[in-house]
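Onboarding guide, step 5: your first structure request.
Type a short instruction followed by the sequence, for example:

Predict the 3D structure of this protein.
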Amino acid sequence: MLERCLALIALCIASSVAAAAGGGPLEPAHVNVHDRASLQRGARLFMNYCAGCHEARFMRYQRLARDLGLDEELVQRHLNFSGAPIGATMLNAMNPEQASEWFGAAPPDLSLTARAKYGGPDWIYTFLKSFYADESRPLGWNNRVLVNASMPHVLWELQGIQRPIYAAGHQGEASHVERLELVQPGKLSPEEYDRAIRDIAAFMAYMAEPAVLQREALGVWVLLYLALFTLLAWLLKREYWRDVH
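The system replies with structure tokens like these:
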């Protein structure tokens, strides 16, 4: 009976993971939120290609400038296209009702996507690699990870255009997308595009938890303090109990 329960739990977990992934296994992004150069490149790409439709209402330009080692004037000139004050959050001027009419649904806020999505940065990385041309869709694009996504492939000029290769299904019918094939190269080589979206994923991972940069640095000192406190407590205990037998 116990074995059956454990097997059922494992099956449920596996099913939920597969459903969350949506399009098969995720590719590891190998992001490094402590790589400041990567975060800076990711911020530039995010603001140029994502922020026109998506907001990041839990992130402030001033915090971004401080954490990424950027001059506030540079951030205002090259990353803040809304003209908002440096202390403002990353909002845009898109009307939600119009966005719903154009895309079928208003573009979601991306502040916490790296924490809310299964796989986090890996999901973002794989998602941005998985767009392909699909004339049956209103916007002309589909995605292998998020099937029938309402989002167009805003990075297509960088990546190029991919077409789907379908796996044979029942009686030779096409069943699902097995892989994607690049049929029209973009401005970047596949290796350069991979690095670009890895930078975007890293920036979104940082944006989902900006405190991670300080939290991990402080964690070392906390552990050292606890080790020192443990040593002092042990020495004190030994002194108190020296004559007690």
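Each response can be followed by summary notes, for example: The chain has ten helices and six strands.
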